[in-house]
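Researcher: Here's the sequence for the chain we discussed earlier.
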Amino acid sequence: MNIKGNTILLAIVACLLWSTAYAGIKIGLQYDTPFHFAGSRFLISGLMIFPFTVKPAVYVKMIREHWRLVAWVTVLQTFLNYTLFYQGMNMVPGALGAVIVGSQPLITALIAAIMIKNDKLTKQKIFTIILGISGVILISAGRQAFKLGTAIELLGVLLILLANVASSTNNVLISMKSNGVDPLVLSSASLFAGGGLIYLLSLPVEGLQHTSFPLEYWLVLLWLSFMAAAAFSLWYKLLQRPGVKVSELNLWKFIIPVAGAILSWLLVPGEKPEWITVTGMIIITVSLLLFFRSTKGRFRIRKSV
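Model: Thanks. This is the structure I predict for it:
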């Protein structure tokens, strides 16, 4: 398998891992508050990665040398993205939230076009993004009716969009600035530090949690922690690869709502396929296949920026 095929395969694996998050978060929030749950999750994620990184002395040296990048990733991806995301999703209907989250490839493509000279918007990207977002809308509409009108819901939309901007900017920064940083060190340090910040935020906002959690909660928390550890480490490694364009890599995130819908059909009682949802999934699949064919054989080394 060539490097491009390997990159696409690994990107799909990361997206499939991320697709399990929504069901897990929904279960976990039945027992816990949002910030406490998220903070605990990312603290554990960072600790899970640590044994697989470099020697402790090298780990500390690498963080000291690249502390600005680690700080930006911590703030943008873990802290801002997830605090805004959790708050926003609590304010809007699930279907609408899924569509706003699904717009991230568009936002990433726009930010990459502004910040990276050789990652401009092309006709193929625009076509794929339009089809992809259309598919996300159909998947969401097939699972829950849209509703928007109150000021709280409008604020929720804004918060989720800001979360997308934070995550997309983080992707671009890693692509541009992370050469020389072990992706495992970067993901471990940023997840642990970001989780710590969210956990500290939960104390004044949500108070101390004294509830005795059931086994289901701990199993979900461990899975979500492992999923974040694996998916972010893999994604950061892909962003560092020569020739990988941030906007093109993020197009594969359109797989997340497709896999999420399938998981819901398999795991959630009462969930079943609807023709409008299946149509959305087909549109997303076709858009990605067409984009893959349009770029087949093209995998140039990324210029320095």
